[in-house]
Amino acid sequence: MALVLNEEQRALRDAAHDFLASEAPVEALRKLRDDRDPLGYAPGLWQQMAQMGWASIILPESYGGLDFGFQGLGVVLEETGRTLAASPLFASAVVGASAVLLGGSEAQKEALLPAIAAGELTLALALEESNHHRPTRIATTAVASADSFILNGDKCFVLDGHSADKLLVVARSAGEQDDSEGLSLFLVDRQASGVTCTRTHLMDSRNAASLSLDNVSVAAADVIGEVGNAWPVLEQVLDRGRVAIAAEMMGCALECFERTVAYLKEREQFGALIGSFQALQHRASHMQAELELARSVIMQALSVVDDSPEELPRMASLAKAQLNELVKLVSNEAVQMHGGIGVTDELEIGLFLKRARVTMQIFGDSGFHKDRYATLCGY
Amino acid sequence: MEDLEQFRLEVRQWLEANCPESQRQPMPPEEQYWGGRRGKFASEDARLWFERMRDKGWVAPEWPTEYGGGGLSPQQGKILAEEMKALRCRKPIFGLGLWMLGPALLEYGNEEQKQRHLRAIVNGEARWCQGYSEPGSGSDLASLQCKAEDKGDHFLVNGSKIWTTKADQCDWIFCLVRTDPDAKKQEGISFLLIDMDDPGISTTPIELISGESEFCQTFFDNVKVPKENLVGELNQGWSVAKALLVHERKLMSEIGSDSPRQVLVPNAAAREYAEFVDGRLADPELRRRLAEYDMRMQAIGLTHFRTFEEKVAGQRSAAPLIMKYAGTEAEKQKSELLLAIMGSRGLGWEGKEFSEAEIDTVRNWAMSYAMTIAGGTSEIQLNVIAKNVLQLPQ
User: Fold this and answer.
1) H or E stretch covering B147
2) Could you list the residue range(s) of the whole structural domain that residue B188 is in?
3) Of A351, A311, A320, which is closest to residue A335 (Cα–Cα)?
4) Which one of A159, B138, B141, B182 has the lowest number of neighbouring Cβ atoms within 10 Å?
5) What are the tens digits of pLDDT across the range A166-180?
6) Which of residues 365 through 394 in chain B touch A, CB cutoff 8 A?
7) Same domain for A236 and A371?
8) How far apart are the CA of B54 and the nearest CA of chain A, in angstroms?
């Protein structure tokens, strides 16, 4: 059954919950921010996560993976969403690993996946070039020269880009801007000559970078998948990423909501608990309804990755659009219902609000996904 | 699992062998069979189909066999429903007895009541309506005033009920009545079964903005009701009422997928009534609304599935409690969207200038307003979620 958790998944969720509550609570993110930590996450924490198998949940056992599938991954990501835990889990172990798994040659998989699974190697996808998610709007060029390619171009919003060991760069070797054909995926060392990677400081205090590629030479052996035909793999990787980030957003929304409901039960005004006011009750109940609908969508989307990939595009757009709207609603209401302290930095609600805004832009905002869903439905 | 697949095969074979071809077509509302003394079959095939289903126990597939049900498990019941849908088999009978009173009687009725009334429902002998709301008691249902006085061997009922669906066609009504005027309001209510043929009962239809009159007001003037018609304990009717409301709300949350009218489907309607350019709906606003509606319906459909899977797995969540709210609000969203898609064709009220489907769609739009009111308004649903799920202070 796909829409309820099995015993194994519940145990994984409980273990993740307990681990994150003690090792990566929200204060940990605040500390990274306040210390202006150059890496943006705690390497020790990441090693612990990898030891528990989180970096390899979706990988087959033959590459050192746990092979728990996306339904297993989903429960862990949801818990990381609850504590805003900063780590390369999403960028490297989900997006990066999926690209290698779906697009890579056997040799590349053997070389990269066990290292990713062990947390020793981190990857980041360098895709975006415009202010909005436009995965085929790629101007970065890849020109073949002997047995290598020369890359030139600029990338933005590269998640965990400044800390990743290697970058997966999407570049164009043929076709016009916005063509899905002519794209290729290159594995580039972040320290390679001609690569300038600059960390950007975003509102969520997590990690993103902008990237400049100036005559960067990449060996032909480091092309992931077919030259000029990266799109079918890239689209699947993005859809997996959309579902995964939606699972993290579910945790973010739930935590934010539960904290708000708890506040409604303790804050007194006019001689009464504010949770007794119908003006607030109805808004809280409406959020509960939206959370329940989103829960079903997330469960289905995760199981579709594992069991029915042909349904993935539409399901991924549904999940991302639904969760975009949910985290916006819940984070906004959380601030408003907390009143004055809701806008103070001291309260952690603000950190959830900011993370919500960043996740809403990752791999497509609501407009992008409603448009895509409409297209996939044939209108 | 294997047993279930075997069951599915048997069900399919049985349906193919027993469901007449004429009963595998979409059903216009006037051909529905609602049972009861005034119930009529639209055709001999309809009668045959009903009788075969009745004899098989599949009029009420999940009720125990001793009351005329099929004794199926929830999984088997789901398979039967799926197979009936796949073969487009019509529902052999409709009714509030089947959907609402029956499940409540199974939980709260005594043996004699179950034997008598459940069998009559399954056999199509009794059509039921619901006597809950009163002119002065809508959302505040527990303030109801229709009273039943204890007269020794019977109750004497006086008062009136409103929104009694097709009361003029029904044989029986299940009613909430006040039996203790001095108790706290929820604690002085009892649940009574009343024969509509009893002297002193009269009904008046109510015309709605949709032009239909499916509801009545029902008046009780010194109606004598035998003591044996009390369901549950005296003054404990509120518990029965709440259990029954759960069934009503579940039913209403699913009603959109099972409308008797020939209402258009937004996606298909857009192709017929709106402009497409290069295979794309040209009006961006309509396109966005259509995508939002389709997304919402997919999320609601998945939540129905999840509720079912949770039931089978013995897990509980808040999902069932939000479905009446989410489902009926989505029905309204759909009705409004259809009007927008149809433009001026979505304004037709009657006459030959408009197709039946167009008029049904418009009438259904007017009817959709009742969806978020009947069975507890959306605001009442939100109150219930606040209290029972979020446990907010009252």
Assistant:
1) strand B147-150
2) 128-236
3) A351
4) B182
5) 999 999 999 998 999
6) 379, 381-383, 385-386, 389-394
7) yes
8) 32
